[in-house]
Amino acid sequence: MLKEAIDFFVCPSCKSNLSLEISQTKNDRVKEGILTCTNCSNKYQIINFIPRFVTNEEYVSSFGDEWHLFKDVKNTRPSMSKDEMSKYLNLNKEDIENKLVLEIGCGAGPYLDISAKEYKAKHIIGVDLSRAVDAAYENVGELENVTIIQANLFHLPFKEKSFDLIYSLGVLHHTPDTKKAFKAITPYVKKQGLVSIWLYGKYWERKIKNQNFIRRNITSKFSSKQLYTFSKISSYFYYLYLLPIIGDGLRERFPLAMDKDIQVRQLNTFDMYSPTYINYHYLDEVYEWFEEENFKDIRPSRYLLGMKGYKA
Predict the structure, then answer these.
(1) How confident is the model at residue 304 (pLDDT cuts 50, 70, 90)?
(2) What is the rounded distance in angstroms from the CA atom of residue 64 to the CA atom of residue 162?
(3) Whole-angstrom Cα distance, residue 91 to residue 83?
(4) Is residue 46 a contact partner of residue 2, using CB atoms and an 8 Å limit?
(5) DSSP 3-state assignment of 34?
(6) What is the 3-state secondary structure of 76-134?
(7) Cβ neighbours of residue 299 closer than 8 Å, sequence gap 6 or more
(8) For residues 226 and 215, what is the distance between their CA atoms, to the nearest angstrom?
(9) How many helices (DSSP H) and strands (DSSP E) are in the chain?
(10) Element (H, E) at 307
(11) Which of 127, 171, 269, 281 has its CA 20 to 30 A from that of 196?
């Protein structure tokens, strides 16, 4: 991390300031060191340039594996990431340029890349609970306007009302409680600031039931290497699923990602069958969350289930 990045952080436990002890630097960045709370004396290590506000991946280790196995897939397809930000989050350059931005669940950093380079965020901080942060640092960590940290979204190391924009694409529904996760991140947006999220919609119940049955009873027992092989082999079923009538039935009974790009299809199939938690939600339900947290000008994105609003 850059030395100046310490100004962004506070102790996640007591919200007091942190002091920085540097053990090793490289290219004007802190490679190894310790952040210490000036109040409660809690210590947080900086390892391989990344501040670590957690000591393990808890329930998201599969995502750490995913973003190392598929580290380059999205980051080598910037037009796709840009399109996803528009379609799922309803975010464009004007929402990000010269803004202080927080991404919850940054994975290997494809949206950090777009936000920092093309959309020219003033500074963007990417947070992930998993070891995906190491893949993200390899991809985008040396950009001057990017900071990457490993932290739990339920215990973020920031002062409240710090960010102009907070966004999260496909992450909050992989926590034990999506609503609590949403409520945990909203205090960190400034007044008049923007929050945009995308979640799984609860609109294809038979498909959801079949996917969850396969995940809980079969793929949850796979190692990451086995699931990687499963995702690669099953991605070829795509061509069978394109057939009229029979394809419709197969897609519902054995759901798979249907992206045209085979590597993206393999990544998204892995993503469908690896998580510990998957929650699904309705549009009006999520709209109410925004209302309860005192947001205004709340609107859905073009693709279910995305929602954004401005803090009143």
Answers:
(1) confident
(2) 27
(3) 9
(4) no
(5) strand
(6) CCHHHHHHHHHHHHCCCHHHHECCEEEEECCCCCHHHHHHHHHCCECEEEEEECCCHHH
(7) 90, 307, 308, 309
(8) 13
(9) 12, 11
(10) strand 306-311
(11) 269
If you search the block for the tokens 């991404």, which residue do you land on? 103
- Sequence-distant (6+) residues with CB within 8 A of 67 are 107, 108, 130, 132, 135, 136
Instruction: Using a cut of 0.90, tell me whether the model's pTM lies above it.
Output: yes
pLDDT tens-digit readout, 75-102: 999 999 999 999 999 999 999 999 999 9
Residue 92 phi/psi, 5° resolution?
Answer: -135, -175
Look at strands 123-128 and 100-104 and give their pairing: parallel
The continuous run of DSSP H or E covering 163 comes out as strand 163-169
Contact by Cβ (8 Å): 124, 145: yes
Dig out the tokens for 236 from the structure. 């070829």
Tokens of 74: 């999205």
Encoding tokens for residue 23?
């053990």
Position 116, amino acid: A
Q: What average pLDDT does the structure give for the chain?
A: 96
pLDDT beyond 90 at 267? yes
pLDDT band at 31 (very low <50, low <70, confident <90, very high): very high
Sequence-distant (≥ 6) Cβ neighbours of residue 310 within 8 angstroms:
192, 193, 194, 295, 296, 297
The confidence score (pLDDT) of residue 169 equals: 98
